[in-house]
Request: fold
Amino acid sequence: MTENRTQPRFATTTEAGVVIVRCAGDLDLATTTRLRDALLGPFRGDATAVVADLSETTYCDSTVFSVLVESYREAVALDIPYAIAAARIAVARPLAILGLDSVLPLHPGVAEARAAVTGDPAVRIS
Reply:
């Protein structure tokens, strides 16, 4: 069934000190090391805030949730604002089932997550 899988993609951009880490495609045990490097890397740099953008993640397993918790803990330890954009059901639903939606700083989109880490009001698109 691997023919239906979406290749994982990671990209990092920085805007005014806010690092946005885009994690797209299918994320699982095979991508955990790359995901961990992508999400924890900004904490070793000059990031003033970090947003994990999972808005294009099509599948994730429990190893991904462990990395999200690990990166959140790192942010808290370093006192760096951190938010996760995760509106897709592939990410949001398992997080809710596991109860992690009440622990992790989840937001429905990148604009809302970015606003949460910068303190700016989210941009509303009508």
User: Anything to note?
Assistant: The CA atoms of residues 7 and 69 lie 23 Å apart. The chain has four helices and six strands. The chain has a mean pLDDT of 91.
